[in-house]
Structure formats: C-alpha cells, structure tokens
Amino acid sequence: MELHLTLIFNGLATGMLIFLLAAGLSLIFGLMSVLNFAHGALFMFGAYMGTWVYILIGGWNSPWGNLNFFVGMIAAALIGVVLGYLVERFTVRQVYGNHLRQILITTGVMLVVAELVKVFWGPNLIRVVQPEFLQGHFLVGDVRLTYYRVFIILFSTMILILLLFMLKKSKIGVVVRAGVENSQMVQALGINIRKVFTLVFIFGTMLACIGGYMWGPFQGQVNPGMGLDLMLIAFIVVAIGGLGSVAGSAIAAVLVGLSEAYMAYYFPPGSLAVNMLIMAAVLLIKPTGLLGAGR
Amino acid sequence: MKTTTKVTAYTNPSSGLNPLRIITWQKGAWIVCCLMLFAVPLLITKNSYLFLLTNIFIWSVFAMSYNLLLGFTGIISFGHAMFFGIGAYSLALTARHVPGGEVGFILAILATVVICFVLSLIVGLLSLRLRDTFYALITLAVATIFVIIAEQWRSMTMGNDGFNFTASLSRDLFGFINLLDRRHVYYIALIFLIGMFLLLKRFIDSPVGRTLQAIRDNEARAASLGYAVLNYKLISNILAGVMAGLAGVVYAISIRFVSPDSVLGVENTIDVLLMTVIGGVGTLLGPIIGAAVVEVSSHYLMGLANIHPIFERWVILFGVVFILIILFFPAGIVGTIKQKFLSKKKGVSS
User: Fold this and answer.
1) Which segments cross the bilayer (chain A) (predicted)?
2) Where are the domains of chain B?
C-alpha cells in the first residue's frame, strides 16, 4: 500500500511538472493550430538560464539560498517572456496559416535554441540542488513525502487554478476560449486574434521556462538532452487532453505522470510505449482528445 | 510550402520517329553527368573523397524518400530515420550473424523491405486519418520507441555503443563485389542513386503521383472528385519508407558501423529534413543538391573545429540557414533557380 501511495505521489509531482510544459503547448496549438516544435528547446533554455542565475548569485549553499531559488525562477520567467516574443515575432508570425511551414520553422528554432544552450553553457550536464527549505522529507503514515515534490504539486496546482480562473473570468480568457472554438468567428467580431495569440505564445513559453527551471532540482541536474525527451511527452499529453483545453492537459499530464512513475518502478524502458498506447487508445475512441473542442 | 504544379508538355509525338531527336540536350546533359560520376573513382584515388561522395549519394536517396512525403504528399514526418535505421541494423545484424555473404545480404534486403512495408503501413493507417499535424507527432513517438529498443536490447544491438562489423563484410559478394573496397561501394551507391532517381521520377509522373500532388495542393477538392485520399497517402508513405530502408542498407555497407545515434536517432531525421528544405522541397533534384551541400559543408566545418571551438556547434549555422530559407526562399535552391529560370523564359515568349 505504501508503495502505491508513494508511486502515486511521485506520479502527481511528475505530472504537474509536465503540465507546466503542456499547458502552453496546448493553448498555442488550440488557438492557431501551431504545433510548436521549439517548445522543448525553449523549456530547456529557461531551465539553463534560471539555473545559471541561481548558481551565479550564490546557489543553494549561501545564506540567501532560499531567496536565490526564487530569483532564479524569476530569471527563467523573464527569459521565457523575451524568447517567446522573439520567436513569435520573427518566425511563427511570418508563416501564419501554413501548418507545414509552421512545423518546419519551429523545428529550425528548436535546432538553433538547443545549440545556443550548448554554446553558452557547454554540452555537459550541470548539477543543481533544491534550496534548504525544500530539502528533506516528512512522513505521513509510512509514506515518505519529499518537500520539493510537495512544493511542485502545490505550485503547479496554483498555476492551474490561476489559468482556469483567467480563462473563465477575464476578458482575454474569454477571447482565448472563443478563439480555440472558432478563431475565424472571433476575427469577424473585430478582435485582433493574432495579438491575443502573441500573448498566449509568450505566456506559454514563460510557463515552459518556469517548468524547466523547476525540473532541474527535481532531477538534480540540467542537461542538453532534456528538451527533446520532455517535449515528446508534452505532445502526448496535449493529444490526450485535447487541443486547447487547459483542464484536459492537467488531467492528461497527471495520467501520464502516474504511468511514468509506475513504469519507472516496474519496467523503465517501457514508459514511452505505455504513454503511446494511452494516446492511441484515446485518439481511437475520441479523436479530439479527452476535453478537446469538437472540431 | 505550396509549389505550383506545372503541367509539363510531353514530347512531341512526331519526334519519336527520329532516334536522334529522342535525346534532347537535357537528357544528354544527364547522361554526361552520370558518365562523369562513373569516371570519378578512376581519377580520384583518395579514399576519404570517395567516402564523402558515397555518403552524399546515400543521403540523397534518403532525402529523396523524405521529399516524397514532404514535397509531393505534403506531410511532415519526424520518424523517417526509423526506416533508415531498420535497414542499417538489418544489414549489420545479418552480416554478423548469418554466415555466407550472399544469403545474409539478400536476407537483409528482404527483411528491410518487409519490415519497412509493414511498419509504414501500420503507422500510416494509425496517423494519416487524423489531422495532419498528428502525423509528425506519431512518427516522432514511434521512432523514439525504436531508439529505445535499440538502446535496451543490448544482447542484439550492443546498446548505445553500437557495433562495428567490418570484419564480417563479404569480400566476394556474388563473386565480383568486394564490400571492403571503397570503389566498389561507390559504384553500388551510385547505381542505387540512379536507379532510385529514375524510379521516383516514374512514380511522380505516373497517374498515382499526379493524384498525390493534387491531394497535396487541395485535399478537399481531390476527395470530392472521388479519390480515396487516404489510400494515395498510404502508397506514398510505404514507398518512402521502403526507399529509406534500402538507403539504410547501403549506408551500413558504407560506414561499417551502426549505433542508435548514427542511424536511428531523431537527429538523422532532422538532417534529412535540412537537406530536403535547403535543396528544394517538391523538386526531384533538390534533395540531391541539398544532401551534397549539407554533407560537404558539415565535413569541412567539422574540420574547422581545430581552429576555433565555435565550429563544433556548426548545427547552429544550419539552423539559421534553414529558418532563413523557409522565410525567404521556401522553394529551396533548386526551386528558386527553377522559378527564376521559368519566369525569364515566360518573359521572352510573351
């Protein structure tokens, strides 16, 4: 029983981290049908940038270690905003409306950004540790709960609630939801959907960069291969959850996180295959994904 | 990536009577080019240049098969390297485990064709009926599963390290081919390239190929005209898969070594994507030019790494060039030249 509770707890933590990556991807895809292949590379760039700042200002050993962690997170978020704007403005926007060219150009961006990481920080992995107040664990019954994972779950849940609230209540959220349903109709009503899309792209990239930064202490390191591996999982999550649905992404991310945790315990090489099977099953039964718009 | 399909005027039927007129200057140029390529091993004795040319030929075939998907069908695959890798691993494994060169060689080709056929059929059936962007996603996932299999099945594939099989390559295949002689491998690759080029040209100009391009340009219209869109896409998917697999077989002969990174990984798909886009999407000659440009420049850029370490990151250069080409010259090298040439010709005639 403890085993299963531990695995479920780990799966939740992994899933909620994946959700940070997948939420932006899902909205970008849902709003403009852009399959953003650069998302994983941007996620990695954010991870490196945040970690670099975190270590530069003293890291986890200095007396300000707790504060440093959050400074690093802000740095990751800022670079996410900058990169998101640059990528959208100079590449994605230029090939608007052509799916094939959008995939191609984001692949090009992925190549450049992933190589830039190696130029700036070298091809080797960088070790990174969580700050002092998130180290260690506590026991509930016989289940060991790591503070950092609890933090990840709480933080990501907060983001999820914030996102859902914004989508439900704010004006721009209404426009985004309407755009996912039918973007031409929104344009016909006199709303500049491309501006909204730019905002969503920036916001999604920022979330991915924060997620990447938090992924570092989770794994104990950042490395140049993390982008592509996680991007594939995020794509699967988006496909399962439904394009453009934040709640669907959250459910799918937790599902995939749980399957990752269980497979990591029983048969690690098979985890991707299991995720693929889940995706295939969902797509065969409901091609729009769990909570996708009926298009 | 919309390229305008031009309705080519077929050769004037009256010219068929005179045997000399069948050979137009274009065909003559082709034949001269081929003859020159056949003469290369007689002039160049340095093995490294022959090796480079051989790899260009093989990657050209791989890129041509990719172009069949990207340029002529309008679907983008991120898992094309799995077919290439399956071909390479088939040859490597049969070379190592099956005694008797000919049996192993034929077995490798048969296994490649059968596996690639079945795999591309299954992947196509699963993904082509969904929206177009899912094809990229599903091929990427399936290819990653193959990489994981190659990494984990250590007893068979030696995992991440890969293995070398130079010693087990046949020295007298069918009595006259020495697979360890660079010149023989060069001729194999060249004949393979010419054969595949002619096959692809036939296919593109056939009714099936024409329909495929019609589907690429306007899927809804082709479907409403009564064409079974899915079946046509499946045909192109299978042909591309089998071609890539055969290219993998020849590649394994040339590099005599297989590992997940060198033949199976996603990097290989991205390389072939670069070649196709740089050379010219939707043109027959484009992938060959693209393969030559990418292979030659990466060969020399890698050599420059001794001068300054920045050249180790030469991929970044390709990435930037790739983005610029998609933004400003979506037709690639060959396509852009063709457009310029055609518009000039039109200007003269009108």
Assistant:
1) 12-35, 42-61, 67-87, 99-121, 147-167, 196-218, 230-258, 265-285
2) 43-265
